[in-house]
Amino acid sequence: MKRRDFLASGALLAGASTVPFSASAKEKKSRSKYADYSGVDAARAKPVLKREFFPDPVIIESVELLRKENNFICRVRSKDGAEGISIGHPFISKQGYPMFKFAIQRWFVGKDARDLDQILYHAAEQNEKKQGVPMNVQLATLEFAVLDMLGNIADKPLGALIGDICNPNIAIYLGTLYRQLRDLEPEVSLEMMAKQVEETHAKAVKLRCGSANNLGDDKDNAPGRTEKLIRMGREKFGDEMVLMMDANWSYSPKEAIRIGRLLEEYNYYFYEEPLPWNWYEEQKIVCDALDINMAGGEVEANMHQMRWLIANDVWDIIQPDIFYFGGMIRSMQVANMAAAKGKIVLPHMSSGGLGYLYMLQFVSACKNAGPFHEFKLFATKDANGTLIPIESKDDPIKSTDGVVNVPTGSGIGVHIDPGYISTHEMIYS
Amino acid sequence: MKRRDFLASGALLAGASTVPFSASAKEKKSRSKYADYSGVDAARAKPVLKREFFPDPVIIESVELLRKENNFICRVRSKDGAEGISIGHPFISKQGYPMFKFAIQRWFVGKDARDLDQILYHAAEQNEKKQGVPMNVQLATLEFAVLDMLGNIADKPLGALIGDICNPNIAIYLGTLYRQLRDLEPEVSLEMMAKQVEETHAKAVKLRCGSANNLGDDKDNAPGRTEKLIRMGREKFGDEMVLMMDANWSYSPKEAIRIGRLLEEYNYYFYEEPLPWNWYEEQKIVCDALDINMAGGEVEANMHQMRWLIANDVWDIIQPDIFYFGGMIRSMQVANMAAAKGKIVLPHMSSGGLGYLYMLQFVSACKNAGPFHEFKLFATKDANGTLIPIESKDDPIKSTDGVVNVPTGSGIGVHIDPGYISTHEMIYS
Fold first, then answer.
1. A interface test, pick of B95, B97, B307 with most A CB neighbours within 10 Å
2. Does A307 touch chain B (CB under 8 A)?
């Protein structure tokens, strides 16, 4: 039985996400020279923001970027006095924040927030010389604040504004938090991971192979360790555990295929980004050669490239980063394109800031979200290492038997202490 | 006779650039599913910086970013007291300058400037989440200053550090300076252009069609005007004038092909960027369908994509922007890849700052530079609108009978008034 059928059987889903991996997802071999884009284009064009909740215009009167040292906060206010807040990305915001002031905010000020789909389209596509992750992070920061404001107006959580809530609880997998495990001996890193599994009852674990730097040759840059880790991972966690492997751009196409075949042998669920992010054509070669599900797309910033990657079946599982791709609405357009091709979405999110909350809100409304999502620290520090003080009307956000509850308050779903926001100062240029 | 053969005959070259457009350049129809990359990869790997001029290490002791309002200056100093200066990009530097401090400069400080090829490789490829034009502009700014310092040490102009001086004089074409001409009636804009031709004796003119925004349909977004401009341009300037057309991303593939056929009918030399910059596959479809030379690449920031565009014959004429692509050495690597496929290079450069000098230095050493290059204002203002005070040991830089002399002083070739630099203050974060 193929891994995707195993998952589709529901044995591992633990009642969390509702749409398992579709059996039709893997149409790997392209039949003509150019893909048929009609399905993904129609999916991309579907409206995302639910205008029906807002009978009257919501004019964005002010957009502010606040800063304290390395940390950034966005505050938006409507003409009628509604307010929305977002916390910037923990380590990219600082790199390109002038783009917020000089490239992004002018697309929002004075506009009707109900036109957010179109505002984002223009801000992303007509800033053509600034496209990339640093600009998208600014775009996402502003979008999160606008959505928070709209959620406050409609008294709905953010997820409900961009889709129907289909995943009120979200199953987690363990993984990227332990980046350093990549450099340890397999025995040591697997033992540490096993302790976390015991604590969280996670039903899925992502390991890391290679040493992250493609050397431009056909060698493994962590020779010996990779084979051992793949085999020992399966032995350690047993046949019931869903195992995944992140290769962090370590390989050439030839070596990527060799490692992929090993992963197939040990029944790993997916194989993430063996090549550098923009090796589009080479990744297609790898995907065509392998049967294991290929996962990727976290550093992709660009709608037209994402469209190509999806329509050409370069990935089986799409992993847009909600910050890096420029916000929830653009990421939902990616999810809709993926759905048109029977693919699932496992959004990527860096740890730090309130990223885990943005991800939970997104996944709660994403009908083709994968069966489990990356676990990050819940009590999260901002870019200065300060704990962000939040309150939730729900139970504390935590993992119970490997499943996390999405907060149900309005907007982002939690309340951020105004005293914390007031420690930040407005940026004028 | 095809346009490229006409040019290859030398009739229009006026003794300027030495390598006309190669007759072997246009192998448009791809024969296998994937291109052969061996030639371009070998070309990309060739060393660019001429280490032989520097017997001893040149340790970069300090890197400073200076600012006055919107204008940025980079100053580098070696351990032995040599100094280099560059002027930032006139309108992109401000958008992403924190990347200079937090992503770029650490790759340079303390390093031997003779390893500049490798330093640039790591700074560009290992900042994978920041890739794009805004980061590359910072990278280029720092590289220009290091090259200026190296030129001062070796007492050679910058071009001589990155190649052999093959184009001491550079023929110009008229064009992008008059962006607003796009919106005028063809009669009016052609009359204005004719006056400039009279003044400069330029032998080549670039016109603009469409209205720059792709509408996502198969219509011309400047209906009627385009056909008229194409025909009247040829009538106005006669058969001897080299005419080019920039379509500024106005079209769908279908409409791009229709306009391209009109341009072929009126014997235009090249057809620039009819589609948005990142419509790679679609641009290949357009190029395959047409016989006219396709020109593009000015907003491309990424080496791996540029490699694909060149190896897959998506463009016949490559137009890297020396700022947007991250400096002279990376742009020369593009030129070397282009040469491996028999293609020519016409670098793009925004007007403002000292961009025209960086472009002249680059073209002076580029063996497959095209027969004429875009003319920009010589007396150039910085990002604050202040004239940058420079002195040259050569005659004033000017166009004589459509040909410009490249300054021959050390480094950038001219001396920037220290009083001007001192009006700028150091940026710490």
1. B95
2. no
The angle, 0 to 180 degrees and rounded to 10, between the axes of the packed helices B186-200 and B225-237 is 30
- In this structure, how many other beta carbons lie within 10 angstroms of the beta carbon of residue A412? 28
Q: Which domains does chain B have, with CATH numbers?
A: 51-159+422-428 (3.30.390.10), 164-411 (3.20.20.120)
pLDDT at B391 over 70: yes
What is the H or E stretch that residue A67 is in? strand A60-68
What confidence score (pLDDT) does residue A202 get?
84
Residues 383-422 (A) with a CB less than 8 A from some CB of B: none
User: In this structure, which long-range contacts are made by residues A385-391, counting pairs with CB atoms below 8 Å and at least 24 apart in sequence?
Assistant: A386/A71, A386/A420, A388/A87, A388/A353, A388/A354, A388/A416, A388/A420, A389/A416, A389/A417, A389/A419, A389/A420, A390/A354, A390/A414, A390/A415, A390/A416, A390/A417, A391/A415, A391/A417
Total residues found in chain A within this entry: 429
Chain B closest CA to A34's CA: distance in Å? 8
Q: What is the pLDDT of residues A149-176, one digit of tens each?
A: 999 999 999 999 999 999 999 998 887 5
Contact B410, B152 (CB under 8 A): yes
Cα–Cα distance, B233 to B224 (Å, whole number): 14
Q: Which residues pair with B157 in a beta bridge?
A: B411
Residues 6 or more apart from A298 whose CB is under 8 A from it? A273, A277, A319, A320, A321, A324, A348
Confidence of residue B378 (pLDDT cuts 50, 70, 90): low
CB-based contact (8 Å) between B124 and chain A? no
Query: Largest Cα–Cα distance of chain A, in whole Å?
Result: 63
- When mean pLDDT is compared across A177-191, A339-353, B296-310, the lowest value belongs to A177-191
Tell me the per-residue pLDDT of B200-224, one tens digit each, with 9 for 90 and over.
Answer: 888 899 998 887 766 667 777 777 8
A67, β-bridge pairs: A72, A425
Contact A58, A150 (CB under 8 A): yes
CB atoms within 10 A of CB B191: 12
- pLDDT tier for residue A216 given thresholds of 50, 70 and 90: low
**10 Å Cβ neighbour count for A154?**
18
Using CB atoms, pick whichever of B97, B98, B302 lies closest to residue A278: B302
A131, A281, A299 ranked by CB distance to B129: nearest = A299
Quote the pTM value: 0.92
Taking alpha carbons only, the member of A161, A149, A154, A130 closest to residue A74 is A149
Tokens of A195: 């302790």
DSSP state letter for B104: I
Dig out the tokens for B332 from the structure. 């020369």
- How many CB atoms are located within 10 Å of the residue A391 CB? 9
Q: Is A163 on the interface with B (CB under 8 A)?
A: no
B304 contacts on A by Cβ (under 8 Å): 276, 278-279
Is the Cα torsion angle A312, A314, A315, A321 positive or negative in sign? negative
Q: Name the token pair of B410.
A: 């050390």
CA contacts within 13 A on the Cβ side of B92: 30
